[in-house]
Design a protein that fits this description.
Number of helices: 9
Number of domains: 1
CATH superfamily: Ribonuclease H-like superfamily/Ribonuclease H
Strand order of the largest sheet: 3-2-1-4-5
Structural class: alpha/beta
Number of strands: 5
Order of helices and strands: EEHHEHHEHEHHHH
Largest sheet: 5 strands, mixed
CATH topology: Nucleotidyltransferase, domain 5
Radius of gyration: 19 Å
CATH architecture: 2-Layer Sandwich
Length: 217
């Protein structure tokens, strides 16, 4: 019985909230059922569609795992120019928990082979599954698409925890004017970034630099 895994992330580019990595494993015989359900890249689905598919995906999976990486850990890796390494380590952690013989991962590196090797370096050689590192795997591999749905919903749940206290945070992405207005107001009032924001991201770094410059004048 071949068990196939898929791993993807959500929130890599966000300025608020965690980076989430999720993985699932399914029997090869159940892959067609994922397609029949209409599973595809989470970005191509509405929130309602993702929520509807979530339980069905879990029901078809052998195992699933979610790894939540807090903003402070993302910041620490970015400062060392190691965000890809951090994500590879998180994917290795997930892969080690889902019990698959072959695993497909969505590759964030420009070099898929390098990213595959980076993931493999965090796994025991004798126990490591065969890893397929692909660009746009969440679009072309339905098991990775299923993982992308789990990752997206887990990330949404983390954002919702923040939103319960701060309702005006928007989506958490730098492209969202509401999100950036929230951060600008926070920095203006408190002279520091929120703990749930990534201070290593350029827009927030620029805000902090401008604030420091005004202080020195």
């Amino acid at each position: 019985m071949l068990v196939v895994g898929g791993v993807d992330e959500a929130g890599r580019g966000s300025i608020i909230g965690p980076l989430v990595v999720a993985g699932i494993s399914v029997r090869e015989s159940n892959i067609a059922k994922l397609k029949e359900l209409g599973v595809r890249d989470s970005k191509q689905l509405t929130r309602q569609a993702r929520e509807k598919l979530h339980d069905a995906i879990i029901g078809l999976s052998e195992r699933h795992r979610v790894k939540v990486i807090k903003p402070a850990e993302v910041d620490a890796s970015v400062l060392l120019k190691g965000l890809n390494r951090l994500e590879a380590k998180a994917m290795a952690h997930v892969i080690g928990k889902i019990g698959a013989h072959e695993v497909y991962v969505d590759c964030c590196d420009t070099n898929p082979d390098r990213y595959r090797d980076s993931i493999a370096s965090h796994l025991l050689p004798d126990a490591a599954p065969k890893i397929h590192s692909l660009h746009h795997a969440d679009r072309i591999n339905v098991v990775v698409s299923a993982a992308s749905i789990i990752a997206k919903l887990a990330r949404d749940a983390e954002i919702q925890k923040i939103r319960k206290r701060y309702s005006d945070i928007g989506s958490g992405y730098p492209s969202d004017e509401r999100t950036m207005l929230f951060i600008r107001k926070w920095v203006g009032r408190k002279k520091c970034p929120p703990a749930f924001a990534r201070k290593s991201w350029k827009p927030l770094r620029m805000m902090l630099a401008e604030m420091e410059q005004r202080t020195l004048i």
